[in-house]
Design goal:
Layout lengths: L4 H35 L9 H11 L36 H4 L6 H10 L3 H16 L4 E12 L2 E2 L3 E9 L2 E9 L5 E5 L7 E4 L3 H6 L1 E4 L19 H15 L6 E10 L2 E9 L11 E7 L5 E7 L11 E12 L21
Antiparallel strand pairs: 1-2, 1-3, 1-12, 3-4, 4-5, 5-6, 6-7, 8-9, 9-10, 10-11, 11-12
Helix pairs in contact: 5-7
């Protein structure tokens, strides 16, 4: 069948229009389908990258404030995994200045400030300071005066010249009263641990130089303590040991007087009182005078508990170190019974 030119032209125009519509649809599909594929979650994968960014914005720094989207991290090698996106406590660097610091310093500061005015603290600190100062003492001389209560009776004052050396512990006594002229020497580790002594009068004539057991009846006559416990060092250490146990809040009343005097020497007086008896308490009241010049005790007093309410406490021990001189350069001869200035021997 023959086809006219006009019909042929119409068929050609229809074909070209259909071709243009097909090309337009193909281009549209080529642009839209990849976007749909990228926006749709795949099997086995989580939410898209927009949600991941939202996690960082919400739980990371600046949470709750709008933030510009961060670029996605690029590919990383398997040998160096990507750092975690959400910070944790274990991943934070440790500040070495705070790693071992206490939770607060306020309590220690308050405690330290209170301690500087607490009488118990000051008493213990003072006797500790005395121990430190005594470690610098090599020897000393003084006039030693003591009174002690023996079998319920307070003795008359015992007055004697005293020489002392700290290492080895060495003591020399020459009595003024009672038994004027009596002498005694004790050196730790020598003379088989005995006291070398001589009496006066007929006692010296008959006995001559004696070697006495420090805890024997003759050496302990009218003495509460053996000579091995005599001297400033023993006094300081004994007080420090007892105060470390005995001075406790609620059981002790402690006071300090910085302008006290003992034997006309400026001193700090420390007085400790135990109102009630206790198994660890040695005395009812103790008075210790610490000399300002030397920083060492020069007088000690100890009192027993009153016999009845309202009674005056009885003096048990009293020791004074008068005219104290430290580091005077004592020699071996000062503790030698053969010293010509001493009177050891029978005549």
């Amino acid at each position: 069948m023959a086809i006219e030119r006009t019909q042929l032209d119409g068929i050609l125009r229809l074909g070209r229009a259909r071709k243009r519509r097909w090309l337009t649809g193909a281009i549209a599909c080529g642009l839209v389908l990849p976007w749909l594929e990228a926006a749709s979650p795949r099997s086995g994968e989580g939410r898209g990258p927009d949600l991941d960014l939202q996690i960082i914005r919400t739980e990371g720094p600046g949470a709750g404030t709008p933030a510009s989207p961060e670029p996605l991290p690029g590919p990383t090698s398997s040998s160096s995994p990507a750092p975690p996106r959400v910070a944790s406590v274990s991943n934070r660097p440790v500040d070495p200045t705070r790693a071992h610091a206490p939770a607060t310093h306020s309590s220690s500061k308050v405690k330290g400030a209170a301690s500087t005015t607490d009488p118990i603290y000051l008493a213990k600190k003072t006797i500790a300071d005395c121990q430190d100062r005594y470690r610098l003492v090599h020897d000393y001389t003084c006039k030693f005066v003591k009174r002690e209560r023996i079998d319920g009776r307070l003795t008359a004052p015992h007055i004697m010249d005293m020489k002392a050396r700290t290492n080895p512990k060495s003591l020399y006594f020459k009595f003024h009263q009672p038994n004027r002229g009596r002498e005694a020497i004790y050196i730790q580790g020598r003379h088989n641990g005995r006291i070398v002594a001589h009496d006066v009068g007929l006692g010296k004539l008959f006995a001559g130089t004696m070697y006495l057991d420090p805890r024997g009846s003759m050496a302990m006559d009218e003495n509460r303590h053996p000579v091995t416990e005599a001297g400033l060092g023993s006094l300081i250490d004994t007080i420090a040991r007892h105060w470390s146990v005995e001075l406790t809040p609620g059981e002790s009343v402690v006071s300090l007087q910085a302008d006290a005097r003992a034997h006309n020497h400026p001193c700090t007086l420390i007085e400790s009182v135990h109102p009630q008896r206790g198994p660890n308490f040695l005395f009812h009241k103790v008075k210790l005078y610490v000399d300002h010049q030397h920083g060492l005790p020069i007088r000690f007093e100890a009192y027993d508990w009153p016999r009845h309410p309202g009674a005056t406490p009885e003096l048990v021990e009293e020791y004074s170190y008068l005219d104290l001189k430290t580091n005077v350069g004592l020699r071996e001869s000062d503790f030698d019974p053969a010293n010509e200035q001493y009177s050891f021997g029978r005549f």
